[in-house]
Write a structure and sequence with these properties.
Elements lengths: L7 E6 L3 H6 L9 E3 L17 E5 L4 E10 L6 E3 L5 E3 H4 L3 E5 L2 E5 L3 H9 L7 E2 L2 E4 L2 E4 L1
Protein backbone atom coordinates (compact mmCIF):
# COMPACT_ATOMS: atom_id res chain seq x y z
CA UNK A 1 0.00 0.00 0.00
CA UNK A 2 1.30 3.40 -0.94
CA UNK A 3 -0.61 5.94 1.15
CA UNK A 4 0.00 8.82 -1.25
CA UNK A 5 -1.83 6.91 -3.99
CA UNK A 6 -5.54 7.00 -3.10
CA UNK A 7 -6.86 4.60 -5.71
CA UNK A 8 -6.23 1.06 -6.86
CA UNK A 9 -4.15 0.67 -9.99
CA UNK A 10 -4.47 -2.33 -12.28
CA UNK A 11 -2.37 -2.97 -15.34
CA UNK A 12 -3.36 -5.06 -18.34
CA UNK A 13 -0.80 -6.19 -20.85
CA UNK A 14 -1.65 -5.55 -24.49
CA UNK A 15 -2.54 -9.18 -25.23
CA UNK A 16 -5.37 -9.07 -22.64
CA UNK A 17 -6.97 -5.79 -23.76
CA UNK A 18 -9.35 -7.24 -26.40
CA UNK A 19 -10.79 -9.71 -23.86
CA UNK A 20 -11.15 -6.96 -21.27
CA UNK A 21 -12.98 -4.66 -23.67
CA UNK A 22 -15.63 -7.33 -24.23
CA UNK A 23 -16.77 -7.17 -20.58
CA UNK A 24 -17.96 -3.57 -20.88
CA UNK A 25 -21.19 -4.92 -22.32
CA UNK A 26 -21.81 -7.03 -19.21
CA UNK A 27 -24.43 -5.37 -16.98
CA UNK A 28 -22.46 -6.31 -13.85
CA UNK A 29 -19.85 -3.77 -14.91
CA UNK A 30 -22.15 -0.81 -15.52
CA UNK A 31 -19.78 1.53 -13.69
CA UNK A 32 -16.86 0.55 -15.90
CA UNK A 33 -15.77 3.52 -17.98
CA UNK A 34 -13.57 2.86 -21.01
CA UNK A 35 -11.65 5.86 -22.31
CA UNK A 36 -12.99 6.31 -25.86
CA UNK A 37 -9.51 7.53 -26.81
CA UNK A 38 -7.68 4.48 -25.43
CA UNK A 39 -6.31 3.48 -28.85
CA UNK A 40 -4.35 6.72 -29.07
CA UNK A 41 -1.08 5.61 -27.43
CA UNK A 42 0.68 8.94 -27.98
CA UNK A 43 2.36 10.30 -24.84
CA UNK A 44 1.37 13.76 -26.14
CA UNK A 45 -2.24 12.98 -25.23
CA UNK A 46 -1.71 14.08 -21.61
CA UNK A 47 -5.41 14.39 -20.71
CA UNK A 48 -6.19 10.75 -21.49
CA UNK A 49 -3.62 8.76 -19.53
CA UNK A 50 -6.07 6.32 -17.91
CA UNK A 51 -7.49 3.72 -20.28
CA UNK A 52 -10.40 2.59 -18.13
CA UNK A 53 -11.81 3.17 -14.68
CA UNK A 54 -14.12 1.23 -12.40
CA UNK A 55 -15.91 3.53 -9.98
CA UNK A 56 -17.97 2.71 -6.90
CA UNK A 57 -19.63 5.91 -5.70
CA UNK A 58 -21.06 4.14 -2.66
CA UNK A 59 -17.64 3.22 -1.24
CA UNK A 60 -15.54 5.87 -2.96
CA UNK A 61 -13.28 3.26 -4.49
CA UNK A 62 -11.66 4.09 -7.80
CA UNK A 63 -9.77 1.49 -9.81
CA UNK A 64 -7.63 2.90 -12.58
CA UNK A 65 -6.92 0.45 -15.38
CA UNK A 66 -3.90 1.07 -17.55
CA UNK A 67 -3.03 -0.81 -20.71
CA UNK A 68 0.67 -1.56 -21.13
CA UNK A 69 1.47 -1.94 -24.81
CA UNK A 70 4.56 -3.14 -26.60
CA UNK A 71 6.58 -0.16 -27.73
CA UNK A 72 6.79 -0.23 -31.52
CA UNK A 73 10.05 1.76 -31.62
CA UNK A 74 11.98 0.29 -28.70
CA UNK A 75 12.33 -3.49 -28.63
CA UNK A 76 11.86 -5.10 -25.21
CA UNK A 77 10.00 -2.08 -23.82
CA UNK A 78 6.37 -1.74 -22.77
CA UNK A 79 4.70 1.54 -21.97
CA UNK A 80 1.45 3.15 -20.95
CA UNK A 81 0.13 6.55 -22.00
CA UNK A 82 1.38 8.39 -18.91
CA UNK A 83 4.10 7.93 -20.42
CA UNK A 84 5.99 5.40 -18.34
CA UNK A 85 8.40 3.00 -20.02
CA UNK A 86 9.48 -0.34 -18.56
CA UNK A 87 11.68 -3.17 -19.74
CA UNK A 88 9.46 -6.20 -20.32
CA UNK A 89 11.84 -8.23 -18.14
CA UNK A 90 10.85 -6.04 -15.15
CA UNK A 91 7.23 -7.19 -15.59
CA UNK A 92 7.39 -10.71 -16.94
CA UNK A 93 7.10 -13.32 -15.73
CA UNK A 94 4.66 -12.00 -13.14
CA UNK A 95 5.28 -12.91 -9.51
CA UNK A 96 2.51 -14.28 -7.34
CA UNK A 97 2.00 -12.67 -3.93
CA UNK A 98 -0.74 -12.07 -1.38
CA UNK A 99 -2.36 -8.67 -0.87
CA UNK A 100 -5.17 -8.20 1.68
CA UNK A 101 -5.68 -11.99 1.84
CA UNK A 102 -6.04 -12.25 -1.95
CA UNK A 103 -3.69 -13.88 -4.41
CA UNK A 104 -2.44 -11.25 -6.86
CA UNK A 105 0.24 -10.99 -9.51
CA UNK A 106 2.79 -8.20 -9.50
CA UNK A 107 5.69 -7.27 -11.75
CA UNK A 108 8.62 -9.66 -11.53
CA UNK A 109 10.98 -6.86 -10.45
CA UNK A 110 8.58 -4.70 -8.47
CA UNK A 111 11.36 -2.59 -6.95
CA UNK A 112 12.53 -1.52 -10.43
CA UNK A 113 8.98 -0.58 -11.40
CA UNK A 114 8.43 1.44 -8.22
CA UNK A 115 11.71 3.31 -8.69
CA UNK A 116 10.80 4.16 -12.30
CA UNK A 117 7.40 5.40 -11.11
CA UNK A 118 8.36 7.31 -7.93
CA UNK A 119 12.17 7.59 -7.86
CA UNK A 120 14.79 5.83 -5.71
CA UNK A 121 13.50 7.33 -2.45
CA UNK A 122 10.37 5.17 -2.63
CA UNK A 123 12.47 2.25 -1.32
CA UNK A 124 13.62 4.15 1.76
CA UNK A 125 11.75 4.19 5.09
CA UNK A 126 10.89 7.84 4.43
CA UNK A 127 9.12 9.11 1.34
CA UNK A 128 8.08 12.74 1.18
CA UNK A 129 6.00 13.27 4.36
CA UNK A 130 5.54 9.53 5.00
CA UNK A 131 7.51 7.12 7.24
CA UNK A 132 7.46 3.33 7.09
CA UNK A 133 7.61 2.00 10.67
CA UNK A 134 6.81 -1.53 11.87
CA UNK A 135 5.37 -2.52 8.51
CA UNK A 136 3.03 0.47 8.18
CA UNK A 137 3.15 3.90 6.59
CA UNK A 138 2.31 6.95 8.69
CA UNK A 139 2.57 10.69 8.21
CA UNK A 140 5.64 12.10 9.93
Amino acid sequence: MLPWDDDIDVVLLEDCVPKFLKIRHNSAFHKLEINPNWKNRSPLDRRNVIDARLICKKTGIFIDITFLTYNRLRKGIINCKSPHYYPIKDFLPLSETVFEDCKVYVPNKIENVLVREYGINVLKPRYKKWRFINGEWSIS
